[in-house]
Amino acid sequence: MADGDGWRRCALGHVHWGRHGAAGLMVFHRDPGDGRKRVLLQQRAWWGSGGGTWGMFSGGMATREDPVAAALRETAEESTLDTSRVRLYGTWTEDHGGWSFTTVFGEMDHRPVVEPASRETRRAEWVPVEEVDRRKLFSPFARSWPALRGALARLVVIVDGANVVGARADHGWWKDRAGANARLRDDLAALAEGLTGLPDGLVPYEVAYPETVLVVEGAARRVADEPRDGVRVVAAPGSGDDLIADLAAHTDLDTVPLVVTADRELRARCESAGAAVIGPRWLLERLPRR
């Protein structure tokens, strides 16, 4: 018996499984052939709570276990899904007072056949998003599904390197623009570990694991030749603003772009393309201090 196994009563008077809270994995895939988005669901075994109903793979967290680790572990224990192939996008926690449930969102670039791997799973199936409501759903999952459905997206943070470098306390950046952008690139890698305090109405994640794109121009272009894990550096062949506006406009169906710049004209161009825009201060408050 794991140390997290057991029932817990929350402040709302409900009884939940998981002495230290629980976590689950909401993973999706968009088929490039038919264009449909599908989520991986588990049909619960008949003998357990909510027997025969459908929901996400989930379970109780162990002592001091991270919710992401718990969600991936439970899914791997209950199914044959290779969770190492899941690209994490964010987390969202429902706090019931004394007990909480964290949903971990992610995407896969393919849709493997997934089989049961424990007595807790009757079946596993990739279900089209628009058909989820037609299933007999596990009641807690049914209550959360409308919110979960709106969170199946990847946050892409597009950074105006020239503008952000000029806004941070990086002395002498105007003399060494390449060096200043390289330092910014290295600091942006920290966002891959989790980004909090997202603007309202963007994506409903408390913690996001974004794709970060740093756009460099002019003398800083050579920074694109020096890759860094967690950050994609793109060199603008001409105007950096033109490239940023183009990136903001040409995103896929499951992408939510957030442009970081204080340039008013660029802000207007990006917002007209449907992207959200925020100033450098917000970003700099979330980077390591130098």
UniProtKB/TrEMBL annotation:
The keyword rRNA-binding does not apply. Residues 18-152 form the Nudix hydrolase domain. Pfam families: NUDIX (PF00293). Keywords: Hydrolase. GO terms for molecular function: hydrolase activity. InterPro entries: NUDIX_hydrolase-like_dom_sf, NUDIX_hydrolase_CS, NUDIX_hydrolase_dom. This is 8-oxo-dGTP pyrophosphatase MutT (NUDIX family). It comes from Actinomadura namibiensis.
